[in-house]
């Protein structure tokens, strides 16, 4: 599906319960993909911007490095017990969370984080300077809510290039999980439902041929995208969206729809920001 080859699934941990849940989800994802898992933590000062860097006192760094090493050892032991046979590597960085995670995303198949609360919340604030999902070099999965083991993968379909990339990832996730796919197109009232349905059918056709094992349900709904996708997340195992869209999805991730999904969805959310899935 991509040129990423055998790049690992990367999960960010910080000692929180939400990060621990993300690590377990990421381990399962790596196992499904038959690839390695990299457990990553960044323990340095947060940089003032993507290009800047601050250098904390060396004695402070020594303490933080020791804490990071202990966290990584404990997390690895937990994951090895939970998913026997999975190849697991660990890495600690003395950079701040935003630049550290942006850097590691360049060598990741997927970047997985916990629910955006506490320190992690700042990574998904909607600000262009700190919104990880808007700048990462690979899709970002935020593990939150209660994943439905028998629920579908839900994908937002809007006809944009990033929306098509999200569809590609959604089909792959559904196939790997042996789950159905629900493709949701949302009308704001300006486009007739039958036109949306036909557009959705065309977008999905090629992917259905590539993934004949995936059962697909097409839905055309009316209302605000965030309300409809939040409702769909209640019975889903994963919601997949593009980072920016067309029409009702315009501004996704940096706008209100993405913030609603990242902070209130009832299941994990994948955000795809690159046009090549």
UniProtKB/TrEMBL annotation:
<feature type="domain" description="UspA">
    <location>
        <begin position="153"/>
        <end position="273"/>
    </location>
</feature>
<keyword id="KW-0547">Nucleotide-binding</keyword>
<dbReference type="InterPro" id="IPR006016">
    <property type="entry name" value="UspA"/>
</dbReference>
<feature type="domain" description="UspA">
    <location>
        <begin position="8"/>
        <end position="144"/>
    </location>
</feature>
<protein>
    <submittedName>
        <fullName>Universal stress protein</fullName>
    </submittedName>
</protein>
<comment type="similarity">
    <text>Belongs to the universal stress protein A family.</text>
</comment>
<dbReference type="InterPro" id="IPR014729">
    <property type="entry name" value="Rossmann-like_a/b/a_fold"/>
</dbReference>
<keyword id="KW-0067">ATP-binding</keyword>
<dbReference type="Pfam" id="PF00582">
    <property type="entry name" value="Usp"/>
</dbReference>
<dbReference type="InterPro" id="IPR006015">
    <property type="entry name" value="Universal_stress_UspA"/>
</dbReference>
């Amino acid at each position: 599906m991509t040129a990423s080859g055998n790049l690992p699934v990367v999960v960010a941990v910080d000692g929180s319960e939400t990060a621990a849940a993300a690590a377990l989800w990421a381990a399962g994802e790596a196992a499904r993909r038959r690839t390695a898992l990299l457990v990553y933590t960044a323990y340095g000062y947060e940089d003032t911007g993507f290009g800047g860097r601050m250098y904390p006192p060396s004695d402070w760094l020594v303490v933080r490095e020791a804490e990071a090493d202990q966290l990584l050892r404990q997390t690895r032991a937990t994951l090895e017990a939970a998913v026997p046979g999975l190849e697991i590597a660990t890495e600690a960085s003395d950079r701040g969370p935003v630049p550290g995670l942006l850097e590691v995303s360049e060598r990741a198949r997927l970047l997985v984080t916990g629910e955006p609360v506490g320190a992690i919340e700042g990574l998904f604030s909607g600000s262009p300077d700190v919104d990880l999902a808007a700048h990462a070099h690979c899709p970002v999965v935020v593990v939150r809510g209660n994943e439905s083991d028998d629920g579908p993968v839900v994908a937002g379909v809007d006809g944009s290039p990033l929306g098509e990339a999200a569809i590609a990832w959604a089909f792959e996730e559904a196939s790997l999980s042996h789950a159905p796919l629900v493709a949701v197109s949302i009308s704001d009232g300006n486009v007739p439902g039958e036109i949306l349905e036909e557009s959705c059918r065309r977008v999905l056709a090629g992917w259905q041929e590539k993934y004949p094992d995936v059962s697909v349900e097409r839905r055309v709904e009316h209302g605000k995208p965030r309300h409809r996708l939040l409702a769909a997340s209640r019975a889903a195992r994963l919601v997949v969206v593009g980072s920016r869209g067309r029409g009702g999805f315009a501004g996704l991730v940096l706008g209100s729809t993405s913030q609603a999904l990242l902070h209130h969805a009832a299941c994990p959310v994948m955000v795809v920001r690159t046009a090549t899935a």
